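Encode chain A's predicted structure.
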Amino acid sequence: MREAGRIVLDGFDLQSDAKVIRHPDRYMGDDRGVEMWGRVVRLAREADRQ
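Encoded structure for chain A:
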């Protein structure tokens, strides 16, 4: 990510980290993650019905 940041952002170091989440777990992070996951599941169910 740092190299990509330098290339795309004209030398700016983009800091990042990584955490592996394995099935059946899922990343929640904070309340926004819980809300987003609920939205994804709802949209997937709606798409399956169509």
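The CA atoms of residues 5 and 11 lie 7 Å apart.
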